[in-house]
Amino acid sequence: MVMADRTYAGAIMALNSLQSNAEAVERTRRNSGKFDHLALPEMVEYLERIGWKQTDLNRLNVVHITGTKGKGSTAAFVDALLRSSPSSSTNGIGAPPPLIGLYTSPHMVKVRERIRLGGKPVSERVFSESFWDVWDRLGANTTIANPEHTPLRPAYFKFLTLLAFHIFLTHNVRCAILEVGIGGRYDSTNIVPKPTVTGITTLGLDHTAILGNTLEEIAAQKAGIFKKGVPAASVWQDSQSARSVIEREAQKVGASSFRFLSHSDADTLKGVQLGIDGDHQTSNAQLAVFLSRVFLESEPGTEVFSPSSPLLSRDEVRANNLTESERIGLASARWPGRCQIVRTKGGAGPVWYLDGAHTKESLEGCAKWFGSRSSSTSRTLIFNTTHGRNSEELLRGMVGGLFSSSSSSSGGEAQGDYFDNIIFCTNTTGRTGSSSDLTSVLDGTQPNLDAQNALASAWKALYPSSATSVYVMPTIEDAVHLVMEKGQGSEALVTGSLHLVGGVMSHLVAMGELDDNLCSKDEGS
């Protein structure tokens, strides 16, 4: 494929051409596990075809993070903690701080959000120049070991992972924080021979068609990021059998150390100011502090940051032993679209509560957060879910979370009347279609409004006597317009899909309510 337009917009068009269509995704689900053994060698081959050796990735001093819930938030906390380290701003008189790279997925509004340097998304110039460099190198080097299985250029996520590695290496990143896409063992991020430290956040049942139907199977996939001679850690997992699998995998691979962090220690962080809202963020913050301490105590960490004072024991992460710089880092962390509150029109418009929760457990956590923060009696829910998830189970879990929060009253059909309005809409951003950055081939797998009508039916089946007004809308723009008409004093919770939240955020950006870093004016950057 030859692209004449070699701008940022052209790069996004070319990138979108690499998305797997619905048929390919379904084939992957049917053949789950069949070609797993080829995934990592294929990724290494792509890396070599653009001019890098696999061992070059060790220069990035990687912090590798996986999990079902909270892995992106944890990565954002680690990024903020390292950038707030005293040594990162005092690395020689007049010297710039060591550059920290962050690779996450998905993006909320712009693709370049996935690749960050120094806490900010790479610029359009850096993204487009690097994109076309990688694109051209792959086109020029056509030596492929398994051409019947390996395409000339990798699919969307793999290409972005390759691009992140390329940008981090060419910009001399001193620590790269990598969030796994799906799973861990066969994920395209898992080709770093020797990361500095690896971590697992809370596990749950998600992507079961790919990762397995039990927590034990999923735990084995997640623990696949552990490496010989590399320290590893996990937040406390409620499932004893999942804990056993994780610990066994750490021993089998020969991790230099492994530990589960204490659940009670995580609870002590509830009184600590966190830049990412929600009580459930404490375990993510705890793991992030642990991972950052391990990195800073490691040989590459001391070479890069040259800490001037010994760190506290990395085995105990409690509120009473956080350093001042750690408190600053935790407070300064931002993770757009996750438990984020946006007050519009200087407080004279609706208040938006944005959270990309999309599993039963994470939706319960989202609902508890919203229930504890909501102060209005005029509430609208905007909801969508994707990829065949159980609509009724997700809705029931979310409402259950609302009525388990201290600020909500419980009881019978009253649960069905908590929201005045519920909008089930597609992930299509606007009436003229989605912006190129938000284009997803998978959106086309939902014929008309069938999925949204199914959600509406599920709600009515759960709460047949509810007086809530239920709307089915074709676009996010329609949903945003209805909420904005409600005006001051109204609140809107947007959840169920990160793509849905990203689409709403794109409209808030267009209205001037969010800046380029997707922070509202009262949040700062």
Q: In percent terms, what proportion of residues is strand?
A: 5-15%
Query: Please, how many domains?
Result: 3
Strands, count:
14
| End-to-end C-alpha gap | 39 Å
Radius of gyration: 22 Å
| Number of helical regions | 18
Mean pLDDT: 88
CATH superfamily of the largest domain: Mur ligase, C-terminal domain
CATH fold-type name of the largest domain: Protein-Tyrosine Phosphatase, Chain A
Please give a structural write-up:
The protein is α/β, with parallel strands linked by helices. Helix content is 39%, strand content 11%. It has three domains: 1-61 and 99-173, UDP-N-acetylmuramoyl-L-alanine:D-glutamate ligase, CATH 3.40.1190; 194-335, UDP-N-acetylmuramoyl-L-alanine:D-glutamate ligase (3-Layer(aba) Sandwich); 340-510, Protein-Tyrosine Phosphatase, Chain A (Alpha-Beta Complex), CATH 3.90.190. The strands form two sheets. An eight-stranded mixed sheet has the order 4-3-2-5-1-6-7-8, with helices on both faces. Helix 15 (391-402) links the parallel strand 11 and strand 12. It is globular and about 60 Å long. Belongs to the folylpolyglutamate synthase family. Pathway: Cofactor biosynthesis; tetrahydrofolylpolyglutamate biosynthesis. ATP binds at residues 338, 355. Its main location: cytoplasm.
